[in-house]
């Protein structure tokens, strides 16, 4: 079962497709109904890849399915929740049944979380960690056995600059990305002997509405309100020079298609700079640079 229905009943999202050429590679992408995930899917389709994936947005899935149908691209899409372990497993089975293998898996799904840690609703925080860490883990874990049997495959996760550089007011989101990177770095030692490659993508910012959706000022009277306000205003300025979703998608596609992808992949010069500073500067200097950059010095 998938999303409460057998695959055969999901005609609007899961389509009969032509037989896949032996030259066509298969990619599985979570969170591909819109934004950067969709652009990655479309670019890979243009390169001849078979596109498989899911998202919670049924309208977006239907639109992408129609677009891929027009291209003549073999595909298998569905509207499911990354937190539904059974649905993820069923989707994996359907991909392997229909196409035989997955050459690359890109865990792109994730949600943001913003706010002073003192004021964080930890019940909501659990949902962020569930989606960003365990959701990603369930997807890549599902495809490891088939990749191990073939001794081939790529597991790619979408992390963030804040997976290594902690940012204020993003404690829960940082925790999720630190955890995700730790998971991949640990699992890498286990799966590489079986020919499975791993890669982590670490964007700093992409010019989407991702941050704007979660940037909410603390209530009046909060001791953090003024600094949070400055942080948000500064972030809005920085986003104006960030890579566009199309630019970011092209760089992500390059990782998916690389014969031997690097373990760490940055999408822009800002990521390289901050991660370099994080590696080599004394902590006091690192802190000073970050507080000045985000205009939150006390």
Structural overview:
Mean pLDDT is 89; it is low at 1-13 and 15-22. The protein starts with 25 loop residues before the first strand and ends in a 5-residue tail after the last helix. Helix 1 (35-46) packs across helix 7 (245-257) and helix 3 runs parallel beside helix 4. The protein has one domain (7-223, 243-269): 3-Layer(aba) Sandwich (Rossmann fold), CATH 3.40.50.720. The protein has a 7-stranded parallel beta sheet, sandwiched between helices. The chain has helices at 35-46, 58-71, 85-99, 122-150, 171-191, 225-239, 245-257, 269-280, 283-293; strands at 26-30, 50-55, 75-79, 104-107, 153-158, 196-201, 264-265. It has 298 residues and is α/β, with parallel strands linked by helices. Strand 2 (50-55), helix 2 (58-71) and strand 3 (75-79) form a beta-alpha-beta unit.
Q: State the secondary-structure class.
A: alpha/beta
Element pattern in H and E: EHEHEHEHEHEHHEHH
CATH architecture: 3-Layer(aba) Sandwich
C-alpha Rg (nearest Å)? 20 Å
Q: Beta-strand level of the residues, as a percent range?
A: 5-15%
**Averaged pLDDT:** 89
- The DSSP helix count reads 9
Q: Return residue spans where pLDDT drops below 50 for at least 5 consecutive residues.
A: 1-13, 15-22
Task: Kindly identify the CATH topology.
Answer: Rossmann fold
Let me know the number of strands. Answer: 7
Helix content: 40-55%
CATH class placement: Alpha Beta
How far from one another are the termini?
54 Å
Taking the sheet with the most strands, its summary is: 7 strands, parallel
- Give me the side-by-side strand order of the main sheet: 3-2-1-4-5-6-7
CATH superfamily, by name, is NAD(P)-binding Rossmann-like Domain
> Could you say how many structural domains there are in total?
1
Q: Tell the overall outline.
A: globular
């Amino acid at each position: 079962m998938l999303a409460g229905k057998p695959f055969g009943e999901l005609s609007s999202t899961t389509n009969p497709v032509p037989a896949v050429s032996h030259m066509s590679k298969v990619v599985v992408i979570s969170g591909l109904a819109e934004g950067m995930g969709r652009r990655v899917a479309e670019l890979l389709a243009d390169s001849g890849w078979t596109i498989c994936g899911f998202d919670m947005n049924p309208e977006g899935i239907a639109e992408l399915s129609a677009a891929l149908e027009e291209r003549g691209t073999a595909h298998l899409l569905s509207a499911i929740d990354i937190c539904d372990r059974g649905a993820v497993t069923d989707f994996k089975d359907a991909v392997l049944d229909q196409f035989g293998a997955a050459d690359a898996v890109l865990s792109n799904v994730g949600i943001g979380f913003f706010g002073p840690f003192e004021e964080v609703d930890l019940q909501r925080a659990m949902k962020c960690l569930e989606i960003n860490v365990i959701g990603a883990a369930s997807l890549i874990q599902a495809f490891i056995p088939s990749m191990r049997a073939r001794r081939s495959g790529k597991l790619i996760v979408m992390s963030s600059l804040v997976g290594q550089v902690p940012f204020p007011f993003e404690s829960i989101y940082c925790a999720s990305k630190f955890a995700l990177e730790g998971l991949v770095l640990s699992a890498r030692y286990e799966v590489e002997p079986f020919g499975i490659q791993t890669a982590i993508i670490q964007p700093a910012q992409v010019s989407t509405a991702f941050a704007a959706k979660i940037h909410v000022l603390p209530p009046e009277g909060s001791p953090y309100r003024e600094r949070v306000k400055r942080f948000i205003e500064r972030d809005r300025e920085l986003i104006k020079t960030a890579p566009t979703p199309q630019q970011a998608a092209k760089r992500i596609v390059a990782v998916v298609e690389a014969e031997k992808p690097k373990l760490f992949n940055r999408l822009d010069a800002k990521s390289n700079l901050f991660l370099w500073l994080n590696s080599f500067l004394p902590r006091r200097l690192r802190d000073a640079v970050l507080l000045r950059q985000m205009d939150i010095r006390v």
